Amino acid sequence: MKALLILGDYWHAPGAYENALGEAWQGLDIETETICFPTRFDPARLKDIDLLVLCAEGTLPKQRDRRWIDPAGETAIQAFVEAGGRLLGWHSGLVAFHPEGPLHSLYGGYFRGHPPEHLFRILDGDGREVASIDDELYRYTVPPDDAIITHWIESDEHPREPAAWTRRIGGGRVACVTLAHNRPHLRMPVVQSLLRAAAES
User: How many CB atoms sit inside 10 A of residue 154's CB?
Assistant: First the structure.
């Protein structure tokens, strides 16, 4: 399998996320190429890959009115997935793309911000607590009925939000993981298992 990793933005250094993927994918036959701090997207990069990982918010650093990917690039990713490709939208890679564009359609929802870092619970798809974490609690619209939500997050201050889900789109698969921001939490077993599942399933 060949994977293209697009990582890093103003708030998220790419090295921690690349290392977390490397740990999660140990033992898997995956050849990776990494683009750090993207400034533009070339749809031709999709030609020879099986998996695209987006972990970089859609806007350029300190330029909220400019994006590194245009609508044509998002449409190319949609076609890639529909033709059988895999897409992992991870943490900041779920944020700030074209509001009515194909990427948010693939993800099945929109980022709604996050409160200050605080302790919250990670639940499995049946609502059982599997871990707790002091991090950014991403608030995201609940994806459509065709999504399989595998994990939720909630805290005493904030209601339950989706944390990880998958969707089948055409012949391909989309996986979304909102966790996590802080470096140590990227190595938590629950986060590592979600990253591995995105490559294995």
Answer: 17
